[in-house]
Amino acid sequence: MTASPRHYMPAAPSAPMVAWLAGANPVDRMGRIAARRNFVHVKRCFMAAVERVDGRRGEWLKHQVRQANEAVDLWLLRGAVFDALSARGPEARPLRNELQRALESVMQGGIDEDDDLLMAF
Predict the structure, then answer these.
(1) pLDDT tens-digit profile of 73-94?
(2) Three-state DSSP class for 48?
């Protein structure tokens, strides 16, 4: 028996994405694509915010943001990221405002009710 080559990749690496997009009508598909684009924008804003945070805290924040797969993951990290930004002083105000706007674009109204917060877990 021969060993599998190290460079082996499945025949269709985008199969999960195709299956995800194929499961709905065109209107739903466009909504999902728009939601994904908004999430990617928010994640990029978070990455920009934590890129200059030093030390173990910075490494932890960078790891957590990279591992986020849903908007609620980033929503739960917002306090730690805003706290890290506050250490930079007034120069971070534009970045804080951009983060807040980005979060509001994916979490309209925020998570105000306890039921919604509990459903996130």
Answers:
(1) 999 999 999 999 888 888 888 8
(2) helix
Which residue in this structure is represented by tokens 């499945």? Answer: 10
Residues listed for the chain: 121
- d(CA 90, CA 23) in angstroms, rounded, equals 46
Percent of the chain that is helix, strand, coil (3-state, to 5): 70, 0, 30
CA pair distance 14, 10, nearest whole angstrom? 9
Cα-based torsion angle of the residue sequence 48, 41, 36, 120 in order, rounded to the nearest 10 degrees? 60
pTM (2 decimals)? Answer: 0.66
